[in-house]
Every structure is written in structure tokens, then in C-alpha cells.
Amino acid sequence: MAAYIFRRLLLIIPTLFGILLLNFVLVQFAPGGPVEQTLAQLQGLGVTAGNRIGSGPQSDIAAGSQTESGYRGAQGLDPALVAEIERLYGFDKPAHERFYQMLVNYLQFDFGKSFYSDKTVTELIIEKLPVSISLGLWTTLLTYLISVPLGIRKAVRDGSAFDVWTSSAIIIGYAIPNFLFAILLIVLFAGGTYLEWFPLRGLTSQNFHELTWWQQIGDYFWHIALPVLASVISSFATLTMLTKNSFLDEINKQYVLTARAKGLSENAVLYRHVFRNAMLLIIAGMPAALIGIFFTGSMLIEVIFSLDGLGLLGYEAVINRDYPVIFGTLYIFTLVGLLMKLISDITYTLVDPRIDFASREV
Hints:
Strand order of the largest sheet: 1-2
CATH class of the largest domain: Mainly Alpha
Number of strands: 2
Shape: globular
Structural class: mainly alpha
Order of helices and strands: HHHEEHHHHHHHHHHHHH
């Protein structure tokens, strides 16, 4: 097992390198970089995230198309000023030198400073992380508390009316994207059109620190109710069906028939024999599911509900072409994701010692 873990850790290095290289190359062709934005602002064009992707001469300048003398947006500006702006953003060096320097810094976990904030990338991530952790933990907790019991009951009552109508509800919930469901919740319950029972923005009220401790708890759950509900709706369908299918597969095996023949009750058979084997896939997949909810599934939810977490940070970084934040978060998220996948494999062996990864090729 130790050799398998060592090989997997070694594979993280080329995987990270490939992902960073691919995204770095794509960014070189992406229009509207920080230099182009600054030049456009100096020309008085007032380019925003919305009209950078538009058409016409103004968007051409914002896109950073170049002439022989340099950026088109630099026409009429002092070349020394343009050179200083390029140096400020680190674009005064060839692309391969910038990529090499980025790799050297990332090996030391030095992700640089944001272009548009007087903070380092690490400081921004630490600042936004509690919001994403809060949303991710509650989403994961509720998803498992709902999906596992529901999946077990569906397996026990397979083919019944309960199984049919719950499957229909699950399919409908799974078919609706979480961001669309979030908008529906806002329209219905957050003052969009009908009721105004829940707040629309943020994780706490402005007077949060003036409230008593029990009022703070209530205010926190009041704000997080709709975002968590929108996240859970799109997360529990897959886990519920996975739980059901796992239990169905185990219930039909020979050892279950033997246990029943010995006179054990259905609950004893289900929870003393079937549960451990059936929960193998669900438990082992928990680390990967958790990291997915933290760093990917919550992005649109954070944007829609204006939650200042990692998802909103990544979205704003892409819109503003804040390259240090983009690549810094990409590096961290990819590294954590790869480590979580490894932990998932190790969890398999802890839950079921019969599984042996050491005898397999990576």
C-alpha cells in the first residue's frame, strides 16, 4: 500500500504541470487581459466585464489586439508608460519565462498578489474559505442525512408506490440545475416576486455583531437556508440512487439468504450484514464529494446569493482577468482534489481490507 501511495503522489507532479500548462497556454489567447484593460481605461473607454466581449472598435481595443507598434489600445500613449504597465503586470517577459517563474514560485507556495486587490492570493483564499466551508459542510451533511436513509428505504421497498413516486421526485430534482433552482427560490421566498421570508445577500446581517449569541445563530441559519437548499437539491439525487443500487446488489447475495435462514430479523440482516458492504462505495466517495461541493458545486450558488466565498472569488477573477488569483486557486484546488482522490482510495481499504491497491498498477 505504501508503494501505491508513493506512486500516486509522484503522479500528482506531472498532472499539476499539465493542467497549469494547458490553462496558461489558453490564457495567452484570451482577450481583454489586465494590460489591455488598463490601456483602455487610460484612453477613457471605461471598459467593463460586460462590454469586453461585445463588438466594435471599442471591444477590439479591450480585446488587446496588437499592431506592429504594440497594443492597439496603446495608440496615442507614451511608449514608456505602456512598458511600465506591462512590467507592473509581469508581461514584460516572454511567455515561457513567465511560466517557468510561476512554477518556481508555486513550488514554494508563493502565488503572488492579486492584480486588483492589495492582498496576496493566499490571503484572499484564507479570507474567503470560511464561507465556502460553511456552505459545503451543511450541504454535505444534509445530503448524506437525506440520501442514505432514503436510498435504504427505496431498496427495501423496491418496486412499491413509495419507490416510484420518490424516484420521480428525485429525477425532477436532478433535472433542474442548482443555479436555476436557486433563482426559483429567490423568486418565491426572497422577495423576487412573491414572499420575502429570507434575505437575498450575504451570510449574515449587517448588525450581526450587535446580536446576542442565540440571535446570531438564528441569523446565520436564516441567511444560509436558501443557498444550502439549492445545493442539496442537485446533490442528493445521485447519492440516493447509488445507495439504493448498492443495497439492492447486496440484498440479493447468498450471505443475506443464509442470514435470513438462520432466523435473523430483517433489521439485523440489513444493518449488521448488508450495511457495511453496501456503504463501501458511499463512504469511500465522501472525500471526493466533499471537495466537489466545496470548490465546484458552490460557485454559481455563491454568485447568485452574493456569498463572499471561493466560488465568487474565482468567478470575479475570471471576469477581471486576475491571473494570479486564477492560477493560484487552480493550483490549490487541483492539488487538494488529487489528494482527496488518493484519500478516497485509501478509504476503500479501511472500509474493506479485502481491497488491495498495492497489487494493481496506478
